[in-house]
């Protein structure tokens, strides 16, 4: 997938656990793991907004586009 999820980086910067993050965002820890591991196929804007609010960051801090065609 060409979209890399950087939730783990932002959590580490804030020394926040997955459980604490999940609770504050309103997700299950399992769903946070799906996002962190890049297995999610979609993210609702409301969820992205909640993640940005909790982490006090911008969507671009959590998501990165990598052009797979250029790296191949």
TrEMBL record:
It comes from the Bacteria. Coiled coil: none annotated. CDD domains: HTH_XRE. Residues 13-62 form the HTH cro/C1-type domain. Pfam families: HTH_26. Transmembrane segments: none annotated. GO terms for molecular function: DNA binding. This is Transcriptional regulator.
